[in-house]
Write a structure and sequence with these properties.
OB fold (Dihydrolipoamide Acetyltransferase, E2P), five-stranded mixed β-barrel, about 130 residues
Length: about 130
């Protein structure tokens, strides 16, 4: 079994400074090809959650989904490990498994922003504060 580095790999644009989930193409905001990968802590706050009662073929029923925002502002649609959707504003740890993003409840000790890679541009809102 190979050890996996903690956190989550994301990308940032060196031109417009937007951060996003890794893609094969250019920056989704400005189209620049000057992007680089970096590691995020993987900690996120749940913005919204639901359970699909009629999921796509091959998925279990009900199929929980959650929209989360990572510490650095990247939003992802994740599949929670629990069969029930997480509560909004709850703290989760996000990981990538193949082409899917999965989340589990974060331990209580986590949730304090560390000395990670914070956004360079614009005015940052406090960590884990969903937009109003």
């Amino acid at each position: 079994m190979t050890a996996v580095a903690p956190g989550l790999e994301l990308c940032k644009c060196l031109t417009c400074h937007v951060r996003f989930a890794p893609t094969d193409g250019p920056c989704p905001k400005c189209g620049s090809g000057t992007t680089e990968a970096y590691r995020s802590s993987g900690l996120a706050v749940v913005l919204a959650a639901t359970a699909l009662e009629v999921p796509p073929p091959g998925w279990e029923r009900p199929h929980p989904l959650a929209l989360v925002e990572l510490e650095d502002g990247v939003r992802l649609l994740v599949i929670p490990d629990d069969r029930s959707p997480p509560a909004p504003r709850s703290l989760v740890e996000v990981r990538r498994e193949g082409g899917l993003y999965r989340a589990r409840a974060a331990p209580e000790a986590k949730g304090k922003r560390g000395e990670g890679d914070a956004p360079d541009a614009g005015v940052a809102r406090p960590p884990f504060e969903p937009p109003r």
